[in-house]
């Protein structure tokens, strides 16, 4: 992989070191023009006809499936098993509600403390709404394997912990879930575009994810859902919107689920966001995921090692032998202020309550120079106690 | 109102007569530039900081509420009672699930045959998922008033029928629902931006709608939901996503609903679509809704009268004394092919199964000249039997 060439595919503000692509990926160079064309030449000139007759032959109506297939390639999902749309929280609800239907005699959703809170909140809301005595059981990440028992209907996990970067073994935990008669729902928010993923080899029953982090599809970019092909016919969508209907334009009075993954669609997909996603995926077509992973680990190790040497006050969030995603995290009681001071120096990392500093290190637009410079800035912030400044105390935070 | 000046605010393809703004409104002139700025100057340059520090002072995080307030003005909803995001189908689910929670002893969702199918499908999916013996009762539009009895938990209606244009009396039916102890959920998909709406005067408990029709926010534009202010504190969201949490960035393990309407947010909002919505709302700030309605009726009557005179084969979908929205519809067994033949002549109307030809007539960008020309084309298609052409037989249709 020619990483320098890859880097030229992104717009990166001059002088900024961006280690927060795991919150919001940067702007691919082709996005603005792609969205402009969809707005002016498709919406503007084709108007309603754009749904069926897009400028490139396929109308907007097909994009959820077409872009789903392109994401599928990055997560090991076969064509026709991924649909794009809505938000990740909605996709979590779809996966969970389908999984619970398939295990009507079981009452436990098992998750871990490293899961992203919205996944847990969606499970809570679903459980309260169903009112059938389900329980959300949340255990520490390393206790998940042993907590999978015969009461568990579904194991719902985010593969890579949004705070520490800790990576679960998807194949192993899925096999354990299946052995206990449970289903596995995997959230790939911090996996898709971060490293190699193979939902098929892992046997994942459902996988969901967002596209605004490593995939670089922009703020509020749509989510995706994968359903194991041999399960999809058994899914009776709880969010049974018209675009998931077998014949949306027959305007029948009763719902009939669409063929295959199409039933996971709900309402009208966000076309401008899909255009931005498409521009982002053009870059991914050229990425060798194994090379990406190797380079990501190289940069991560370089960063972790240098921080250990230069910033003794920062505690690694993970032991070095624990598998991790494409981020490196540390703990410090003044984490929030440190990140703010770092941002003031033009190095954008991220803070996650209560005390985590996290840094996304993706090879697409980062190299040794940025990694080394970031460490220098971090060391300076700590050595000079720059974080101890009233400007950096008030808390505001995002994504 | 200076309607000619208003018209110049839209991009309309040369030579096209667009009577389908009730499917997808046309492109406002300022949209492309507004979206470009958000992509290049906010996403591109601010990156993750765009969530809190937008170029215009307010970050993306506030847009769901800010744009909700601007839509609120068009539907008579007070500030702080409307939230933007997701799709209309999801907003229907939110309103329905909340309403059912508030009437735990009742089992009927009452709707009508004129409701948009997705609303009925979402009710079906919710009922199946709850599995507590709820029933979706669907009656003819004019039978709704008498069907509201003590079993009804919620009356769910689309104010303006997407096929015929028939308009329900929102205040009257809401009063009847309340008198019977039921709640009212109103879908304003064909109302918002079409005529004056006052959800407050009507006492509507919940109102939902989309922004890609009369509001002109573009393909896949987000939906909105209004909850009556005195009810919102009792809403425990079933779709309890993190952005509806009281403190999304505290990353607490348990869900606590956000203050007021903020709890109706679910996941990360689609920022590019919100930018397009904002550009569309800039136009609406200048529209006098009473003048819009008067002009809409003027154009509609002119159209209906001329069609009656020139196209005797077309049957009006509604008696002339029935209140209607900003559209005029007819029935014809060859409706689909007629609409296709009309499109081939550069007049875009819409077909709705089984036999409805519908024409949206909004004064924002249509005047007497277009109305008269459309009638001439329609008469020619019928007189010359242009619809009887193999090109116009295959069915494909959208939105």
UniProtKB/TrEMBL annotation, chains A, B:
Its cofactor is pyridoxal 5'-phosphate. HAMAP family: Kynureninase. The lineage of its organism: Bacteria, Pseudomonadati, Pseudomonadota, Alphaproteobacteria, Rhodobacterales. Belongs to the kynureninase family. It comes from Jannaschia seosinensis. One of its GO terms (biological process) is NAD+ biosynthetic process. Keywords: Hydrolase, Pyridine nucleotide biosynthesis, Pyridoxal phosphate. One of its GO terms (cellular component) is cytoplasm. GO terms for molecular function: kynureninase activity; pyridoxal phosphate binding. The gene is kynU. The modification N6-(pyridoxal phosphate)lysine is found at residue 213. Catalyzes the cleavage of L-kynurenine (L-Kyn) and L-3-hydroxykynurenine (L-3OHKyn) into anthranilic acid (AA) and 3-hydroxyanthranilic acid (3-OHAA), respectively. The keyword Hydrolase applies. Homodimer. Pyridoxal 5'-phosphate binds at residues 88-89, 116-119, 158, 187, 190, 212, 242, 268. It catalyses: L-kynurenine + H2O = anthranilate + L-alanine + H(+); 3-hydroxy-L-kynurenine + H2O = 3-hydroxyanthranilate + L-alanine + H(+). It is an enzyme of class 3 (hydrolase). SUPFAM superfamilies: PLP-dependent transferases. Pathway: Amino-acid degradation; L-kynurenine degradation; L-alanine and anthranilate from L-kynurenine: step 1/1; Cofactor biosynthesis; NAD(+) biosynthesis; quinolinate from L-kynurenine: step 2/3. This is Kynureninase. Its EC number is 3.7.1.3.
């Amino acid at each position: 992989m020619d990483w320098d060439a890859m880097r030229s595919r992104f717009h990166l503000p001059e002088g900024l070191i961006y280690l927060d692509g795991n919150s919001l990926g940067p702007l691919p160079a082709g996005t603005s023009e792609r969205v402009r064309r969809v707005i002016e030449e498709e919406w503007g000139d084709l108007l309603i006809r754009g749904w069926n007759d897009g400028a490139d032959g396929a109308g907007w109506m097909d994009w959820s499936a077409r872009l789903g297939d392109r994401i599928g390639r990055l997560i090991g999902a076969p064509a026709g098993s991924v649909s794009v749309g809505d938000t990740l929280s909605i996709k979590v609800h779809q996966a969970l509600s389908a999984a619970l239907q398939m295990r009507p005699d079981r009452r436990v959703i098992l998750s871990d403390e490293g899961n992203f809170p919205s996944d847990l909140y969606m499970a809570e809301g679903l459980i309260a709404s169903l009112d059938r005595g389900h329980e959300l059981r949340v255990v520490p990440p390393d206790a998940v394997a042993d907590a999978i028992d015969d009461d568990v209907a579904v194991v719902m996990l985010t593969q890579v912990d949004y705070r520490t970067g800790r990576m679960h073994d998807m194949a192993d935990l899925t096999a354990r879930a299946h052995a206990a008669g449970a289903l596995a729902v995997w959230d790939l928010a911090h996996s898709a575009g971060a490293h190699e993923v193979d939902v098929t080899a892992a046997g994942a029953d459902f996988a969901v994810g967002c596209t605004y982090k490593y995939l670089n599809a922009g703020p509020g970019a749509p989510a995706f859902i994968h359903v194991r092909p041999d399960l999809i016919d058994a899914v009776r969508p709880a969010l049974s919107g018209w675009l998931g209907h077998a014949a949306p334009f027959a305007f029948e009075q009763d719902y009939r689920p669409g063929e295959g993954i199409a039933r996971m669609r709900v309402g009208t997909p966000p076309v401008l966001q899909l255009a931005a996603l498409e521009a982002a995926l053009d870059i991914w077509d050229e990425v060798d995921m194994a090379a990406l992973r190797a380079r990501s680990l190289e940069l991560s190790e370089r960063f972790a090692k240098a921080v250990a040497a230069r910033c003794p006050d920062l505690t690694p969030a993970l032991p070095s032998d624990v598998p991790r995603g494409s981020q490196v995290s540390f703990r410090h009681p003044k984490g929030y202020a440190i990140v703010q001071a770092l941002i003031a120096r033009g190095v954008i990392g991220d803070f996650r309550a209560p005390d985590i500093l996290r840094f996304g290190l993706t090879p697409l637009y980062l190299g040794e120079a940025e990694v080394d410079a970031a460490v220098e800035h971090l060391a300076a912030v700590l050595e000079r106690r720059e974080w101890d400044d009233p400007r950096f105390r008030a808390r505001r935070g995002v994504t």
